[in-house]
Specification:
single chain, Rossmann fold, four-stranded parallel β-sheet, alpha/beta, 2 domains, 13 helices, 215 residues, globular, 4 strands
Length: 215
């Protein structure tokens, strides 16, 4: 049953050891016909953004918007140059974790897109920062009790309880425990990105997700 549930959540997306490189290659092929490109760090970000957009009735395909998971913030500058004013000249938006904010800011400047001094400047350019990361944003928006219920629905509650009993996590805040659990293992990270993005109320969307899908 767990395998069937996981397969359903991963349907339509590449997964497995080569997921990151395959997802990037697939998205870059689609970008050849795009009017706009949204840069995100990984496949889990792509899944969350596309899930939210679909729930809001946005058709990225019809809008010629392509979400490109770039395989980590170190690659932002390369793709900003490739798709920005020095390259294809497409409309650009993006999403990153707070730990990569400075790297994205430098990338925007290096690609000639702007010279953002702070987060407000980045948002005016269409780039939004998750605090701490996408999982943290979604956990807070959905609520820790409901996230635990979703983990139970996927047959993963026993594994989560095991993590909670580990000395380094015992007594830690539930949000931190959940973030560690959801982020451990590429397959789990992907599954729960889609699950939480499908669960969060559209009136309670984290600001970065709400804003980037409207940019």
């Amino acid at each position: 049953m767990r395998r069937e549930l996981a397969s359903r959540l991963l349907s339509g997306y590449v997964h497995g050891p080569e997921a990151a490189t395959q997802a990037t290659a697939r998205a870059l092929t689609k970008a050849a016909d795009a009017n706009a490109v949204m840069l995100v760090e990984g496949v889990s970000d792509q899944m969350a953004v596309e899930t939210i957009a679909a729930r809001r009735g946005q058709d990225f395909g019809a809008q010629h918007v392509v979400v490109v998971p770039i395989g980590g913030a170190h690659a932002f500058t390369r793709y900003l140059k490739q798709f920005g004013p020095a390259g294809a000249g497409l409309r650009l938006t993006g999403l990153c974790d707070v730990g990569e904010e400075n790297a994205v800011r430098r990338g925007l400047a290096g690609a000639g897109i702007g010279s953002p001094v702070g987060r407000a400047d980045m948002e005016r350019l269409g780039f939004y920062v998750c605090v701490e990361d996408l999982e943290d944003e979604l956990i807070r928006a959905v609520g820790t009790a409901r996230v635990a219920e979703l983990i139970d629905s996927q047959g993963d509650l026993g594994s989560f309880r095991s993590l909670q009993r580990q000395p380094e996590w015992r007594g830690q805040p539930a949000g931190a425990q959940l973030r560690r659990f959801l982020g451990s293992g590429a397959g789990r990270k992907l599954r729960y990105a889609r699950l939480l993005a499908g669960e969060v109320g559209l009136d309670r969307l984290p600001h970065p997700l709400e804003a980037v899908t409207r940019a």
